[in-house]
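Lecture 7 notes: from sequence to structure.
We start with the chain below.
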Amino acid sequence: MGSHCLIRKILFFIFATFCFQTVGSPYWVSLSHAEEPVPLTLSSAVDLALKNNPLIRITLSGREIADAQLREARAGWFPLLQFSETFTRGNNPVFVFGSLLEQGQFGPQNFQISALNDPDPLSNFRTAVNLRQALFDQLQTCTRVTQARLGQQQADLQKAMVEQQVRFEVIRAYYGTLVAHAKKGVAEETIKMAESDVKRTRDRFQSGLVVQSDLLAAEVQLGEFRQQQIDAEGDVAIAYAALNTVLGLPVDTSQKVVGELGDKRFEMTPKEELIRLALLHRPDYARSGNSIQLNKEGVAGAKREYLPRLDLFGNYGVSGENLSSGSSDYTFGVSLTFNIFDAGRSARISKARAAESMATAEQEHLANQIRLEVVRAYQQHVSARERLGVAEQLIDQATETHRIIQNRYREGLTTITEVLRAETALVRSRLNLVAARYDHYVSYAHVLLSVGKLTDIESYLS
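Predicted structure tokens for the same chain:
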């Protein structure tokens, strides 16, 4: 007994020491914090989103549901086999008479009038196996199988559409982080420029070359730029949270986005050709066509209810007063059923035709919406491209204007107001250039999405 207690104490001591080293040791904590995030490119971000984004998992579940519906529809071609165990006790004359026959216990004494009219209570255990096979089910199984296969195609098209949407959201969020960093960089450069202006103006004020209002104006400008820097830092945090959300990760996941919003030009297809391609490649438009086919099959299935139904059935059972004994019997046969009058049949056909008409109208409406989306995306990209050209010209002009006004202010040929106005214009032109490049990148991705050609990230980067 003492040796067992000693062994338990030693094991407990080892376990406690291990837990302390794992949880409480500063080495482990510093190691976890020392891990650097892996550089995240646009391609790797898209791959990560296609694995982790909840929308992708939803579409995968939709395909699994479609597969299960197909298996369920195909089950109509297989026989139905059932097992049943029934216990009944009573003195109903018909029940007693029939049960005695099933159990093989009917004898001459059971023909007595008293036994027929007022029999003693009887127990009957009935064990049975039932088989039913549809030989011809009005082609309803064929209808359901065809509809289930169309459902599979719809699930695949839904997945393709969602994947393109996820790629677009990743592109927008990925470049959003680059924009946020670029704006933060502009704000930091602006702070340095404003601090230099304040220092130079203070030196000139102490030398008596400018009035105090010039120094105060420069300090106010510096305060406004610091507010912009604070906002830019907040925008960086928000941009990373948005990116992590699209990637399907916790919002506070550390990321290291690599890349830049460089000067890139995209080749643009004519608008009419884009509309034609959209009606060929958009997954949602193809899905609407599948909906029409599915409803047409529903109309055909409703009409097939006018056909007869042919079933094969069989039964094997054992009846007895207890489970250990009894008499066996079997039945089998074929049944032909023809619905001469079914008041709901015409209503079901009308409903199926209305659903087909609605699906056709929805496809026409979707085609109009697709044309509008393509035109909107095309014009937005053209506008973004033109704004980018203007922003690139203005940045050079604003830089040169700021340099000239700074020189004139040093010579005492202009006021501090003109200097601050030039600095504000320079900052605005830098921010406009960053925003214009972002719109140019994202608007092209929107064009590909509207056409249904954002099928892989290489089609966007090329």
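Points to note: Residues 1-34 have pLDDT under 50 and may be disordered. The first strand starts at residue 39 and ends at 40.
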